[in-house]
Structures are given as structure tokens and as C-alpha cells.
Design brief:
Layout lengths: L1 H13 L6 H8 L3 H7 L3 H9 L15 H8 L16 H13 L1 H28 L9 H18 L7 H18 L2
Length: 185
């Protein structure tokens, strides 16, 4: 039943419709009671649906080249820009942005239950780099991650550029280079 409910919710999101309990019940074929037994709120259900297809990256091995880990972690190693939106079509990404920007509670729930977990491996690798003396001892790794991710989101959300545009990948690699120079010991 969980899969039915999440799939129905995702179908509503992908169709650009407002997600309501009535729509989820109608589309999934489950009862309201079954829905509420599985999710304490519509917000937590939508957050779970928004995360379909996304994975938590594995931990980076000790001694990994940290600059390359940043480049790879943001999907800049190849010819297209996967970034933090990997696992999403561009349309689903835009729907996610629309939904979370219109509902602060959903934004916080999605951050806490899903997005923040995907940062952990790269943040841990950066912390290990500090411990090894490769990165500055006073480095705020969360701020560094946000600076790079923010650059990526700016390209897609503010500039309206496509994720697969080579110019976007070039700008993001240049941004990583600038941020990296401020990070090294």
C-alpha cells in the first residue's frame, strides 16, 4: 500500500495538480485511514514522494582526492550536470521547487527527512580533509557545501538554464575552483 500511495502522490505532483488527501485517496485506491496510518501528515507524504528516485551516495574512501570528490559529488565530472537534482527529470525538479517554495513546512520536512541525508558523505569527506590537514582548520564545511549547491541551484532556478547545458557545467566547475581555493590549507 505504501508504494500505491507514494506513486499516486507522485503522479499528482508530476501532473502539476495540487496534492490533497482526497486526490491521493482517489488515485491510490486506499482509504483515508490507511493513508493516515502510514503518514502522520500530507506534508510528510509529499516529502516522501518528492524523494522517489533519489539515493544517498556512499561514503567516500579515506584519502580520496577532495577536489575531485566535490566535482564528482555535484555531477560535474561528466559532460552533463547532474548535481543535487540527480534522479529527477527537469520537470520533476521544477515541480519540487514550486512545491517546497510555496510551503515552508514542506520545505523543512523535505530537508530534514531527505535532502540533508544526501549531503552527509561529502560533508564527512571534507571533515576528514580538515583532520588530515588538507583543508583549513577553520573551514565551515556546511557553508562550503551550500556555496557550491547554491551556485548550481542559481543556474537552474534563477538563470533558467538547463541542467544539460555545457555552459552551466563550465560555470559550476569554475565556481568549484574558486570555492576550493578558499578551502585549502
Amino acid at each position: 500500500m505504501d508504494g500505491q500511495i507514494v506513486a499516486a502522490t507522485l503522479g499528482i505532483i508530476d501532473a502539476g495538480e495540487e496534492v490533497t488527501v482526497s486526490r491521493v485517496v482517489a488515485r491510490s485506491g486506499v482509504s483515508r485511514a490507511a493513508l493516515y496510518r502510514r503518514w502522520p501528515s500530507l506534508t510528510t507524504l509529499i516529502a516522501a514522494a518528492l524523494d522517489v528516485g533519489r539515493t544517498i551516495p556512499p561514503e567516500y574512501p579515506d584519502g580520496v582526492d577532495l577536489r575531485e570528490a566535490l566535482v564528482d559529488g555535484f555531477g560535474l565530472g561528466g559532460s552533463s550536470v547532474a548535481l543535487a537534482v540527480s534522479g529527477y527529470s527537469e520537470e520533476r525538479f521544477r515541480q519540487r521547487i514550486r512545491l517546497v517554495m510555496s510551503d515552508r513546512a514542506l520545505q523543512k520536512a523535505y530537508w530534514q527527512s531527505h535532502v540533508s541525508r544526501r549531503r552527509v558523505p561529502l560533508v564527512n569527506a571534507l571533515r576528514a580533509g580538515i583532520a588530515r590537514g588538507e583543508l583549513r582548520a577553520d573551514l565551515d564545511v556546511e557553508a562550503c557545501f551550500d556555496a557550491i549547491a547554491g551556485t548550481a541551484y542559481y543556474q537552474i532556478v534563477v538563470r533558467g538554464d538547463r541542467m544539460d547545458d555545457p555552459a552551466v557545467a563550465a560555470r559550476l566547475r569554475a565556481a568549484v575552483d574558486v570555492i576550493w581555493r578558499g578551502m585549502v590549507a
